[in-house]
Structures are given as C-alpha cells and as structure tokens.
C-alpha cells in the first residue's frame, strides 16, 4: 500500500466515523417511513394484529448516541390487519371506544424517552413514560439503534403495555367475572420501526 492510498483510506475512515459517532443534535421522525404495529391477545389463544400512525416525533442524539425522544401517536388511526372488511372496521371502531382507548376524548397517546442504557454500539435498554387516556406508566424494553450520517433508525419488538393501568378494563379478568372465552389479555404488544432524519443545523 502506497502513502496516497493509506492517506485516502484514513480520511475516509475519519469522515465515516465522525459522521455518526461524534454527532449531536435533533432528528425528526419520518412518519411516512416509520411503522408502528400492535398485537392484542385473547386469554385462551388467538390474537388480532393491526397498525397505528405516528403523528409526530423527535429524537435527540449526543456524541453519536440516542439520548432522548418524544413521540405522539394518532389514536384515531387504529387499523386492524389480520381480518378484512366489516369485521375489521367494527373491531377498529370498538378499540377507539371507552372500552379500550377512548380516542374521541384522548386522540393522542405519547411516549417520552427518559433513559437509555447502551449494551454495545447498537443495542440498548430503553426506559420511558407512555401516556394513554391521560394516564402515564413507565415501561422498559430493548431496542436497536443505528445512526448513519443524517439518518437514525430505531427498532423495538414486543413492547408490552398494561392497558388496565390506562383505565381500559374491557374483558379483563381482574375486573369482571363470568367472561368465559371473551377474556382479553390486560397487556397489548407494540412493535416499532422508526426512521428519522437530522434537522439542519446539527453539529
């Protein structure tokens, strides 16, 4: 390897690493490219799946690592994906009622990232507050975070949220008896894939 090739390689490595590892600033979530899906399970087997839209979101990066974030979720956008037609529309409408998420009175849910503990360059434990129906609970989950230049990608699977904390008691054996096969798990599951772009002016 001659001196010019070595120097060129060094410059490339320097530019690549400093473009992410030393970067700080704000990243705005691309709500069109990001995906938020949900799963709801019946107590004796069977489940429904669906999707829900992100309304907005920003994430903060410090020294090349995710350090904070806030997100708003559009509760009126709840969709059901495992069934089609009228049954799917009826279930989606039911999920928006007071039995579950009361979207008419609480059109947005929010998540505030409070703390993130990195295990390595990409994997981290996330702790934050999720607010649904005006009630907040702290949740934690593992996530993978990739920052490459002006783009940040974050993914988390199997995030469990106890809906009864948020005053959704429908089908919960903790509150009702003689439900038979209509028992619904207290927890629902969220799967998240976020894509965010750096806001101009980042360091």
3D structure, described in words:
By secondary structure, the protein is mainly β. It has one domain (23-198): Lipid/polyisoprenoid-binding, YceI-like (Lipocalin), CATH 2.40.128.110. The chain has 2 helices and 9 strands. Strands 1, 2, 3, 4, 5, 6, 7, 8 and 9 form a 9-stranded antiparallel sheet that branches. It starts with a helix and ends in a 5-residue tail after the last strand.
pLDDT < 50 stretches: 3-21
Estimate the strand proportion: over 45%
Q: What is the CA-atom radius of gyration, in angstroms?
A: 21 Å
Name the structural class. Answer: mainly beta
From the 3D coordinates, which CATH architecture would you assign? Beta Barrel
CATH homologous superfamily identity: Lipid/polyisoprenoid-binding, YceI-like
What is the string of helix and strand elements? HEEEEHEEEEE
Q: Any idea what the shape is?
A: elongated
Mean pLDDT level: 87
Classify the oligomer: single chain
Distance between the termini: 34 Å
The largest sheet is: 9 strands, antiparallel
Q: What's the number of structural domains?
A: 1
**CATH top level assignment:** Mainly Beta
- Number of discrete helical segments: 2
Number of strands: 9
In percent, how helical is the residue content? 10-25%
- What name is given to the CATH topology? Lipocalin
Short structural description:
With 203 residues, the protein is mostly beta strands. Helix content is 13%, strand content 53%.
């Amino acid at each position: 390897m001659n001196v010019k090739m070595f120097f060129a390689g060094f410059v490339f490595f320097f530019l690549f690493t400093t473009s992410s590892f030393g970067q700080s600033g704000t990243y705005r979530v691309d709500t069109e490219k990001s995906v938020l899906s949900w799963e709801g399970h019946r107590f004796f087997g069977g489940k429904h799946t669906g999707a829900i839209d992100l309304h907005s979101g920003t994430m903060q990066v410090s020294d090349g690592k995710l350090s904070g974030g806030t997100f708003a979720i559009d509760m009126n956008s709840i969709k059901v994906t495992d069934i089609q037609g009228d049954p799917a529309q009826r279930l989606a409408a039911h999920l928006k009622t007071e039995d579950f998420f009361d979207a008419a009175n609480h059109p947005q849910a929010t998540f505030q990232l409070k703390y993130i503990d990195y295990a390595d360059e990409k994997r981290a434990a996330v702790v934050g507050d999720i607010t649904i129906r005006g009630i907040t609970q702290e949740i934690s989950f593992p996530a993978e975070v990739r920052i490459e230049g002006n783009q940040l990608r974050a993914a988390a699977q199997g995030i469990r949220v106890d809906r009864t904390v948020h005053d959704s008691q429908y089908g919960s054996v903790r509150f009702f008896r003689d439900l038979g096969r209509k028992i619904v798990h207290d927890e629902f599951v969220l799967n998240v894939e976020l894509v965010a772009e750096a806001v101009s002016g980042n360091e």
